[in-house]
Amino acid sequence: MGHSFGAFLAALYAAEFPEHVRAFIAVAPADLAVLPAPGGGLFEQIRQRLPADQLAAYQRYVAEYFDFHAAVKKSDDELAAMYRRFGPFYMAATPAASRPAIADTLEGNGGMMPLALYFSMGRRHDYRAAFRQVAAPVLVIHGRDDLQPAASSRAFAGLFPNHRMVEIAAAGHFVSPTSRRSSRPL
Question: Which range of residues forms the domain containing residue 49?
Answer without folding.
Answer: 2-168
